[in-house]
Amino acid sequence: MFDTIKTYLSKDQIGVNNLFDYCEPFISDVTIINSNYYQCMTGLLTSGQKVSITPNGISFQGSMAKYYNDTNLIDLNPNEIGYAIEKLSDEMHLPMDKSKVTQLHIGLNLETNYSADVYFPALGNKNGFERHKQNNGIYYSNTSGTNVLNMYDKIRECKKQRNKIPNELKGKNITRPELRLKTISKYFNRNGIFLKDLQSKDFQIESIEALIKEFESINILNLDEMNTEEIKTPNDYILYCACQYLINQGPESTKAHLKQLKQGNAFKNKESYSRLNKSINKITSNKSKGDNRNMIDEISFKLKGKALIYR
Asked: What is the reported pTM?
């Protein structure tokens, strides 16, 4: 459930005089920046996570799941979260569990009935957030950009990053709702959240409930409700109307139209009929997948079901 994190451990918590000399043997690909105004050493841990060190403290940034399991397609269970923190402390030879968490991504990988992009058009606006489209999903950001709710295709992301996909997940639809927090202490109304807190059952439950609450506050669009964010030109609107017509007519009616076109030799290229049929099937298949409310209910149901392992 916890994936990308950013933490900071101050020199005062460590009891080491020279952090550069102490940490350098434990990291690879070391780069040192030394100027009159700034000193920093960066490097990588065994699984590729980034470590930044200054004279005053050390920062860790990366995926906890990748660090422990070599993949973030499989969520860490409650015990594995603790093991990952122990592994980090052992590798750095430092009490990393005492480090303060400054950023945190909370999410769950869900095996869904359809690919993630099928669900995106059903998700409308969210109060207090702006809705944005991206190549692999959609995200909602508050005005300051400190809280972001993301939903995307996890398999597609792994392929793009050339990460290994476990055999048991190949060919599956994996959709990930994810809450990304840059002001985590403020969000949970605490003086500070530390890496050791991520092992707490109470905090794990609180985090999952926050994810579910943020997701379920999204306005769900009806099939015939127009999403104006998708329509930027007159042609976009014409395409929207055509798609709604195809969906409402159903596949049988549109196939009859296609047959008429073919009999009348409407298109010079014979392959045009098969390509058009494929496009029509893609559009009208949305009707057989149920209405938007049912599709989003599937996400909510599976979120709550997977959350049970943390209780």
From this structure: 0.77
